[in-house]
Amino acid sequence: MAEAEVVGTGAVPAELADRQLLVRLVEAGRVVAREPLDVARERHIAARANLPLSATQLSRGEPVLPTEYVHERSGS
Question: pTM above the 0.70 mark?
């Protein structure tokens, strides 16, 4: 179950790299990969299944998932 949105710079830390949300299909205007629509659809369904039920409800106020900011460590 998703607990937070993590935003950072630099390389993705190993402990956060278990599930990439972005799939590079186009880079600098060029197609770099292709995938069938069914694959994208299944990834979307799986990602949504990891959200809490409250994420499917529209309401005003705070976001369902808190945002955590991480920064690349220098010198490591």
Answer: no
